[in-house]
Amino acid sequence: MARREASVPFLNLDWGLQDNSDFRTILYSTYFSNPGYLRYVDRLIATLRTQSVERIQEKLSDVSDIPKFRSAISELEVARILSSKYPTQLLPDNTWEGPSPDMVVKRGDREILIEVKRLTQDEAEVIIVSSLRQFLPAQRPAIRVDVTLSEKLALPVVKLPERVAKEGIAERSIEEFKAKFSTVAEGTLPADIPTEGAIFTLLPTNARKEGYPGIIRSGVIKVPEDLLIEKLVEDVCDKAGKRGGFPPQKRTSPYVVAIDSEQISVDDITLGRAFIGDTVLLMPPLQVPKEPTSPEVARANSRSWQTFLKRTAIIPSGRSYLPRESRGAFFTRRELRNVSLVMLRTAASHYSIPNPFCDDSINDSSLTSFI
User: Fold this and answer.
1) Would you give the DSSP letter of residue 224?
2) Fewer CB in 10 Å around end: N or C, the chain?
3) DSSP state of 298
4) Neighbours of 6 (CB within 10 A)
């Protein structure tokens, strides 16, 4: 049985994982020395139960390892925010025939579909975790492996050549780890295996007969805002495409992409720059240039978006305006027609920005007051 703090019963966490005892063992073993994290998750689940969020246990029954659990916690954090205002139901994997969102909230007589993405998660991390998941079960003794990513792997990238290079570093790091594993595992534990892109920390585990990947860390790395904006847009665009696979009757429900960010520097200003653009405030005697209204803005203006368009200077207001060359992703990325609103959760707060230019069937100006 996994070790745990006998004096601290995590009753809500135990309840949440009652259908997933295998992962419960992994979780308690991994965080035995960090009960504060377990208390945080326990309180989060307690809040969701108090706010009558549905299908918590089913959502957590899908979890099989720590990285997937972290993604699930991002979903629970978003559910915590939304369930304070709306009835909320989490959707386990394969709830619908084909892809399904992570949760559904009821707003008045309309369903709103919510998809969640952790901002820092990318293919390099997936490569490392999946490789460890395949490699460790066959190794003896059973070892838990935590990973601390270097800046090379922790910093987000967007462009294809950069992604390919980053994935190459991840693959080489895994191969280097495998080559050194047997020698290090036979020595005194815990022990580190430093590689090109990460430090792999080997820890003994008496809770399981097979080894498994533990905690993935990246440390505190300041990411330039322009890079964060680029990554934010690409992540939302990636999730936008999921709507096309929903059942036809569900594609008429507003679709929200919620980003859960570990970057404390990301806020509503970042969100506005990414999706609306960089507005300009002109000082006298400069005047706002007279430009023709684009068809998309004219259409939104006719659909009760006037207040939002002026507040964001999409329609010039006073001395503020949005230059065409500075417009954000809602203007420039066609795939975002699938997204009704982008939500951002950080450790400090949460923010949202609706899309006045999304498809007619999911276009709803009342989303300006969604959260």
Assistant:
1) P
2) N
3) H
4) 6
- Both tokens of 367, joined, read 């989303």
Q: 3-state class of 327 per DSSP?
A: strand
The sign of the torsion formed by the CA atoms of 42, 44, 45, 50 equals positive
Cis peptide, bond prior to residue 224, ω within 30 of zero: no
HSE-up of residue 368 (Cα within 13 Å, Cβ side): 13
Burial class of residue 190 (count of CB atoms within 10 Å of its CB; 0-12, 13-18, 19+): exposed
Residue type (1 letter), 331: F
Closest CA to 266 of 222, 314, 236: 222
CA distance 169 to 156: 14
280, 323 Cβ separation under 8 angstroms: yes
Strands 191-194 and 143-149: unpaired
The residues, any chain, with a CB within 8 Å of residue 319's CB and separated by 6 or more, are: 281, 282, 283, 284, 286, 288
Contact 119, 259 (CB under 8 A): yes
SS3 89: strand
Which has the closest alpha carbon to 352: 156, 48, 91, 85?
A: 85
Q: Whole-angstrom Cα distance, residue 242 to residue 184?
A: 43
Helix (H, G, I), strand (E, B) or coil at 147: strand
Q: Tens-of-pLDDT digits for all 371 residues of the chain?
A: 444 443 458 999 999 999 999 999 989 888 877 788 999 999 999 999 999 999 999 999 989 888 889 899 999 999 999 999 999 999 998 899 889 999 999 999 999 999 999 876 567 887 898 899 889 989 988 899 999 998 888 877 767 788 789 999 999 999 999 999 999 999 999 999 999 999 999 998 866 678 888 888 875 555 567 778 888 999 999 999 999 999 999 999 999 999 998 766 678 999 999 999 999 988 888 888 888 889 999 999 999 999 999 999 999 988 898 999 999 999 999 999 999 999 999 888 999 999 999 999 999 999 999 99
Beta partners for residue 258, in sequence order: 116, 343
| Beta pairing class for 212-217 and 143-149 | parallel
Distance CA(282)–CA(289), nearest Å, equals 10
